[in-house]
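As a warm-up, study this chain.
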Amino acid sequence: MVFVVLVYWTVKKGLEDEFIRFWKTRTVSDKSAFVGEFLSKVELPDGYNTWDLSVDGATTFINVGIWKSMEDFKSQIGKYISSRERFEQKFRVRAMLTPFIRRKGEAELETVTKDVEFAP
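Now compare it with the structure written out below.
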């Protein structure tokens, strides 16, 4: 089974580096049920991006976390869901997703060798 968490962050303009430092230092202590996660900066709509996630005065980021189960996520991360951080334009929101159909491709993700690293 796979469980996916989407976290929508709105970060005040000028505080993006503070947010990235914050995000990079939040690690999972027990990685046995943690598949991985991706932090992405939301780009402006260009014809392909039809879901407008922008907020005036903020830079938006989406965190996609993949876990073995919702219970694993809650036990590992639930205690860290805290109050609003200084850099947040508004408090982050999340969507908890349980995939029910899967599609296999042929491509593989590049290997990640550090706990946190920038994508190539």
